[in-house]
Design brief:
Blueprint lengths: L4 H12 L12 H7 L1 H14 L3 H12 L11 E2 L3 E2 L14 H11 L9 H19 L6 H10 L1 H5 L7 H26 L1
Antiparallel strand pairs: 1-2
Length: 192
């Protein structure tokens, strides 16, 4: 079923005007969910649908955008100082590339699915992690390896393109640590 490009454009423009500002404390998951309670419901729905822990979803989004729904890579510079084109089509909470988002949208999206909508973003993470798990066998709670596959693409992960990128391995360790921290914090806010 073909979706109306014009309708999608209108909805995207309307929803883009409603992008929430990043949480005031992106380092504490309890504070994030206290500020945006609907985000907790969205993340829990994804945990049930795709079996991806809330802490892993949130750690990936923290790394990709620090919860800025309008995040984009900085533009390249022409002649070293004139802002020019962006290095990729990455956008939104997940920094999903346009083509990868289109694959997700084609199979699971609706008119309200946009890269700058938090509910859509966490569902995208769940879908991507599930695809990664099915293809590579990486457990859905292994934030380190899942982030490597998220950053490099599943094929890139399978070809171990990260092996010569020490900076990326270090970032994946940070994502794992953040997921562990978020998981512990979440247990504390549940107990309160």
């Amino acid at each position: 079923m073909r979706k109306s490009i014009f309708g999608l454009l209108i909805i995207t423009l309307l929803l883009s005007a409603c992008v929430k500002k990043p949480p005031s404390d992106v380092n504490n998951i309890c504070h994030i969910f206290k500020q945006y309670p609907s985000w907790y419901r969205n993340a829990k729905d994804v945990e049930h649908r795709w079996m991806v822990p809330v802490s892993v979803q949130m750690a990936i989004i923290h790394q990709e955008s620090k919860f800025d729904g309008a995040a984009r890579p900085p533009p390249t510079k022409l002649f070293g100082f004139i802002p020019w084109t962006r290095p990729s089509s990455a956008y939104g909470y997940t920094q999903a590339l346009r083509d990868t988002w289109a694959d997700y949208y084609q199979n699971y999206g609706n008119l309200f699915t946009t890269r700058d909508d938090f509910g859509s973003a966490v569902d995208f993470i769940g879908w991507y992690v599930n695809q990664t798990h099915k293809r590579t066998g990486i457990p859905r709670n292994d934030a380190f390896r899942l982030y490597l596959a998220y950053h490099e693409g599943i094929g890139g992960y399978e070809h171990q393109s990260y092996r010569h990128k020490n900076w990326l391995v270090n970032v994946a360790h940070k994502v794992k640590k953040r997921a562990d921290t978020y998981r512990a914090q979440l247990a504390m806010c549940h107990s309160k």
